[in-house]
Amino acid sequence: LRPTGLDFTVIDLTGGIKVFSSSADFGYVPNEGDEVQISGIIDQFNGLTEIIPDTVIFLSEDNVLKIPVPVSTLSEATESDLVQLTGCSIVDPADWIGGGASFNVELDCDGETITMRIDDLVDLSTAVAPEGSFTLRGLGGQFDFSSPYTEGYQIFPRYTADIILDPVATVADIADVTGEDADGVATSDGELVELTGIVYGGNLRPTGLDFTIIDLTGGIKVFSSSLDFGYTVTEGDEVRVTGVIDQFNGLTQIIPESVILLSTGNTLKVPTAVTALGESTESDLVSLEFCSLVDPAQWLGDGSSFNVDIVCEGSGTLVMRIDDLVDLSTALAPADTFHLTGIGGQFDNSSPYTEGYQIFPRYTADIELVPNDTTGNPNAIQNPEAGGIRLFPNPVSTQLVIQSRELLLGMVTVTDLSGRIVYRRELNTYSEQIDLTGLAAGTYYITLLAEEQFFGSTIVKL
After folding, report:
1. Domain 170-263: homologous superfamily in CATH
2. Both ends of the chain: CA-CA distance in Å?
């Protein structure tokens, strides 16, 4: 990095150091990969430790370079070492002077402010500024002209190849990236895409993300094992998700790199009426009519996740999956006949991925009892009218009256459409008013426990 003299870096198995000579080159022309032996005096310039050589002896060439060390910031530890930063972008493109001059450029690398130094003797000094996000490799440096020498850390890319542009996500409709071949294998697996859709259901993961988005063309699961990207899952949100298409047990999903909230309170689609579950129902909001449990004993209701076999009108045996994070996981079993709404899923752990289709109800309101269904099942979810219970007024603005002719009212629970409990109270009476003033306008589901019978209904808050 010096037209006369020497200015380069050597690294051994323990660390690195700059070699600097203002005018003498000792008959050596620096080439990356050379092994050299240097004798000289240790010095420091603007905080950077260096060696002023007395001799430079060439030993060998074409040696293997070390792998760049991944770092998130620059410090004393990165001086004269080959390091790598990710998620970098130029803060102000005007900083990139070009034209063959030396210049500094301020970067944002995954939230850290980094100074990149472009030397006039590297090819980057005449290159155009990189656009978008990139990975940066280079040699750590320092330029701090006053004690204490604890600032001014820099990174020096060696050549154009040290700036590696990140792949650009393809903006796509969901249906364009959820195709599968005859064996059920996702045809877009590994593609980096940007999708926009409406959120359906809640977050089915206590840490990270597990929810569904649907656009006008189709739906897809959004899954992150630990990161939530600052987003709280709320049904009806419109979000933009950038990430990589993946497949897990037959279900196509997107592993997000970012989740951006665009709008809230969007209208949900009308569920697609189906009589079977398959590839076409994956990550779609679907409905089945006149369903019943094959074996009520499969309904655990203990707060865990469980599968329940069901039979619906026009179908064979289907699988309903109750997730432990939805209110149904602690509810009593539904009556023998009900209409069911939910999000299609799949859990097939071997190829071909053409089995294991499921339906995930989002909350209690997704199980709608068929009117006038009387089964005599004491654990069934019943309409309040069946137990002589009245809820009024509905819609309600402030006070909801609950009256029972015969049954003693016990626990009352109100949940929103994401399954979140917004009101719960033990009544122990035959008539009561509950104050719903604090609830936002919208549709809610109310459940009542009365003398070991379970009743449920929707209410509208004005």
Report:
1. Nucleic acid-binding proteins (2.40.50.140)
2. 72
Q: Which residues of 266-282 are buried (b: 16+ CB within 10 A; e: fewer)?
A: eeeeebeebeebebebb
d(CA 397, CA 231): 30
Among 150-164, 186-200, 420-434, name the one with the lowest average pLDDT.
420-434
State the pLDDT confidence band at 374, using cuts at 50, 70 and 90.
Answer: very low
**Is it true that domain 384-461 has CATH number 2.60.40.3080?**
yes
Cα angle for residues 188, 345, 325 (degrees, 5° grid) = 120
DSSP code string of 370-430: PTT-----TTSEE-GGGGTEEEESSSBSSEEEEEESSSPEEEEEEE-TTS-EEEEEEEEES
pLDDT band at 372 (very low <50, low <70, confident <90, very high): very low
Global model pTM greater than 0.85: no
Name the token pair of 346. 């799949």
Token pair for 395 = 């819609």
CATH class of this structure's domain 272-369: mainly beta
Q: 96, 90 in Cβ contact below 8 A?
A: yes
What CATH fold (topology level) applies to the domain 69-165?
Answer: OB fold (Dihydrolipoamide Acetyltransferase, E2P) (2.40.50)
Would you state the pLDDT for residue 83? 98
Residue 414's beta-bridge partner residues?
423, 446
> Where, residue-wise, is CATH 2.40.50.140 in the chain?
69-165, 170-263
Structure confidence by residue, pLDDT tens digits, 92-125: 999 999 999 999 999 999 999 999 999 999 999 9
Closest CA to 445 of 421, 422, 415: 415
DSSP 185-209: -BTTTT-EEEEEEEEES----SSSE
Stretch (H or E) spanning 258: strand 251-263
